[in-house]
Amino acid sequence: MIGGRKDEHIRIASSSDVEVGDSLFDGVQLIHNALPEMDFNDVDSTIELFNKRLSFPFIIGALTGGTETAGRVNAVLAKAAEEFGIGMYVGSQRIALMKPETAWSFRVVKDNAPSALKIANLGAPQVSRLSDRDLVDWVNEAVDMINADAVAIHLNPAQELFQPEGEPWFSGVLGKLKLIRRVVNRPLIIKEVGNGVSMEVARMLNSIPPDAIDVAGHGGTSFIRIEAIRGGELSKADVFRDWGIPTVLSICEVSSVYDGVIIASGGVRNGLDGAKAIALGADAFTMSRPMLVSALKGYEAVRELINKLMWEFKATMFLTGSRRVEDLKKTPVVANLPILLWLIQRGVKCKLTTNIYNQIKPIASMLINKVFNTTEH
Ligand SMILES: Cc1cc2nc3c(=O)[nH]c(=O)nc-3n(C[C@H](O)[C@H](O)[C@H](O)COP(=O)(O)O)c2cc1C
């Protein structure tokens, strides 16, 4: 049954209209540099993440595993991760822990990508119901299965709620995450699956703290929609069409309160979006659904997509005069009014709002002084 669900996710995500909302990357603009004072060849897009060198800050997003088709998708993506020197998440490994005969569909990742950055994956509701002992065993087994360099635990309350056989069990999750952090000898990533992470949640996560937060914001693939299609109740999904924190805003919210690595995902659709995410405060970016669609077409389609992404990312570095990814983080960035209104209402202190707050401060104190002096007379 769980295998059937994995294949349905692949089929629906690759053939139906499952992208809703707006990740808001179009509302963000980087400032063109007419005098970059370097050649295009001087661009160095490499970064180091979790002790692995990446050719550019890109990780293939968490997708699948556990069935014949999923195994083929994982093998193709892993081969590309190895060839390009990029990272790769696998999909939730619960299926392989419950049905060991399916573990091969994850193992193909370590076979095809022996030196790439590999990230294991389990779901929060499932780990929340395990005894501490079983939890540690599960996580260690998931790591060994793909020789993972890091472990991701996904938070997916909306998906579980809309999933016909869902498990919306979120009590006790924070304690289990703390346990994983203590006993598992790998960096811990906490990720969403497409509805975003708020600054309040990032503050709660600070009590763990994880090594990375993957915001997986709203505006790309909608699991509310995928599960509603599976359940034949699309009208339920329509009501919650705009539910979630758009990716751009989630990056800003999380970066305002959290000091660790930030991974941007959810509706990132080209290398320019990825570069904007990094200029806003992320350290790396991922893409899921487009990788799945390409992997189903075959290896050449995946190569083409990654080559395109890498060129777009490097082009943006050149056009902002960013020799290294660290420079891109410092490049100026502006945003449109809806983005700014959200950030100001939420009191988010990030790169986009610092100037505004600095400019408002003297005006506000002048006004206060004026009111104060007037009332004195
Ligand atoms: C078919 C499919 C299966 C997915 N399975 C998982 C999963 O098992 N674990 C997980 O953490 N995220 C999973 N995701 C969520 C993605 O990792 C990502 O957060 C989300 O799709 C948003 O990114 P996108 O807009 O680039 O697709 C899945 C996404 C898709 C499309």
From TrEMBL:
Question: What cofactors does this protein use?
Answer: FMN; NADPH; Mg(2+)
UniProt-annotated binding residues for Mg(2+): 160
Q: Which GO terms describe its cellular component?
A: cytoplasm
Q: Which Gene3D superfamilies match?
A: Aldolase class I
Where does the record place it?
A: Cytoplasm
Keyword field: Cytoplasm, Flavoprotein, FMN, Isomerase, Isoprene biosynthesis, Magnesium, Metal-binding, NADP
Query: GO molecular function, one example?
Result: oxidoreductase activity
> Which E.C. number(s) belong to this protein?
5.3.3.2
Q: Where is the FMN-dependent dehydrogenase domain?
A: 176-331
Determine the domain of life of the protein's source: Archaea
User: Could you say which residues bind substrate here?
Assistant: 5-6, 92-94, 159
Task: Provide the catalytic activity annotation.
Answer: isopentenyl diphosphate = dimethylallyl diphosphate
Q: Which residues form the signal peptide?
A: none
Q: Do you know which HAMAP family this protein is assigned to?
A: Idi_2 (MF_00354)
This molecule's function is given as:
Involved in the biosynthesis of isoprenoids. Catalyzes the 1,3-allylic rearrangement of the homoallylic substrate isopentenyl (IPP) to its allylic isomer, dimethylallyl diphosphate (DMAPP).
Q: How does it assemble?
A: Homooctamer. Dimer of tetramers.
Which protein is depicted? Isopentenyl-diphosphate delta-isomerase
At the highest ranks, the source species' classification is: Archaea, Thermoproteota, Thermoprotei, Thermoproteales, Thermoproteaceae
